[in-house]
């Protein structure tokens, strides 16, 4: 028991040191900051995958405190997100959860951590960093439009269209934050799981992307949102409009991903070259309406069996 305790303390101290170094590099060194950011949860995830949850939480808290000493309050929200990610990822691996659970848990933990930090920023420091960033972006756009107008003599966009565009951008902030949180989680999982596997941690596997089947509940939610948008027609700026607009954005992304998965399935069934899958994914972005329709059909109907049957004939 003493040996195990000593080993845990030694391992924990090493992980805290590595975590602090990675956070410092990610925060202060511009060139390699992205790489350090992607690997920042790794030390805590490794520790959390080997030891119990309470020890992992304590390690994460100490890691954040250490970063506070050399970075102050500004670095604390940054380090907290990656500490939480590390604890959640490692705990999911330790308890042998599926990769889907790992992805969802990490994404939700990032969202909750960000929301708490946002509330603290508003309530304690009276600083709305989202609003300030949005205002800065608006001023930047206005400056670029004024510059373009001085060169061409024409307005790139009317004031009404400009205000409408930014109103929709502001309304879409919840969906944007949600998608960004889960995208970050996906990147962190993709980058760190192979390394954790090399470190002796048992890691789950995602099924092949071509076999991706999202829950059919997504299709029903999309139909409800679409019905509200078509028949209720909520006014711009109302709570119902904000809710349906954000839901529709997230659902568009999910259904587009499902459509891309179907394209990969078809190409794989026809044994098409791999580069065609890459091309299909690239062209899916400008043709997202068509790809989203494929995603809807893929979820609503068993068209994969139809494709498989056609090939066998």
UniProtKB/TrEMBL annotation:
<keyword id="KW-0812">Transmembrane</keyword>
<dbReference type="InterPro" id="IPR018710">
    <property type="entry name" value="DUF2232"/>
</dbReference>
<feature type="transmembrane region" description="Helical">
    <location>
        <begin position="12"/>
        <end position="45"/>
    </location>
</feature>
<dbReference type="Pfam" id="PF09991">
    <property type="entry name" value="DUF2232"/>
</dbReference>
<feature type="transmembrane region" description="Helical">
    <location>
        <begin position="217"/>
        <end position="234"/>
    </location>
</feature>
<feature type="transmembrane region" description="Helical">
    <location>
        <begin position="100"/>
        <end position="120"/>
    </location>
</feature>
<protein>
    <submittedName>
        <fullName>Uncharacterized protein YybS (DUF2232 family)</fullName>
    </submittedName>
</protein>
<keyword id="KW-1133">Transmembrane helix</keyword>
<feature type="transmembrane region" description="Helical">
    <location>
        <begin position="171"/>
        <end position="196"/>
    </location>
</feature>
<feature type="transmembrane region" description="Helical">
    <location>
        <begin position="279"/>
        <end position="297"/>
    </location>
</feature>
<feature type="transmembrane region" description="Helical">
    <location>
        <begin position="57"/>
        <end position="88"/>
    </location>
</feature>
<feature type="transmembrane region" description="Helical">
    <location>
        <begin position="240"/>
        <end position="267"/>
    </location>
</feature>
<keyword id="KW-0472">Membrane</keyword>
């Amino acid at each position: 028991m003493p040996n195990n305790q000593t080993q845990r303390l030694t391992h924990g101290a090493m992980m805290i040191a590595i975590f602090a170094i990675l956070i410092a590099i990610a925060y202060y060194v511009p060139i390699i900051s992205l790489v350090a950011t992607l690997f920042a949860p790794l030390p805590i995830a490794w520790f959390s995958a080997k030891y119990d949850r309470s020890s992992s939480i304590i390690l994460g808290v100490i890691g954040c405190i250490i970063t506070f000493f050399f970075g102050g309050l500004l670095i604390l929200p940054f380090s907290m997100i990656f500490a939480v990610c590390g604890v959640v990822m490692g705990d999911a691996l330790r308890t042998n959860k599926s990769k889907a659970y790992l992805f969802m848990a990490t994404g939700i933990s990032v969202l909750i951590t960000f929301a708490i930090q946002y509330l603290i920023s508003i309530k304690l420091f009276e600083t709305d960093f989202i609003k300030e960033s949005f205002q800065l972006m608006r001023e930047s756009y206005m400056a670029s439009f004024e510059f373009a107008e001085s060169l061409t003599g024409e307005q790139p966009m009317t004031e009404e269209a400009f205000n409408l565009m930014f109103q929709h951008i502001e309304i879409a902030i919840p969906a944007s934050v949600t998608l960004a949180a889960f995208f970050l989680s996906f990147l962190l999982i993709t980058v760190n799981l192979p390394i954790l596997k090399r470190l002796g941690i048992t890691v789950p596997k995602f099924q092949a992307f071509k076999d991706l089947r999202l829950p059919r509940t997504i299709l029903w939610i999309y139909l409800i949102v679409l019905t509200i948008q078509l028949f209720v027609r909520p006014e711009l700026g109302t709570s119902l409009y904000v809710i349906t607009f954000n839901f529709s954005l997230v659902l568009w992304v999910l259904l587009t991903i499902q459509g891309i998965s179907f394209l990969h399935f078809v190409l794989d069934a026809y044994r098409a070259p791999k580069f065609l899958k890459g091309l299909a994914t690239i062209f899916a972005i400008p043709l997202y309406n068509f790809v989203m329709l494929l995603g809807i059909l893929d979820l609503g109907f068993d068209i994969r069996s139809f494709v498989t049957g056609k090939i066998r004939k």
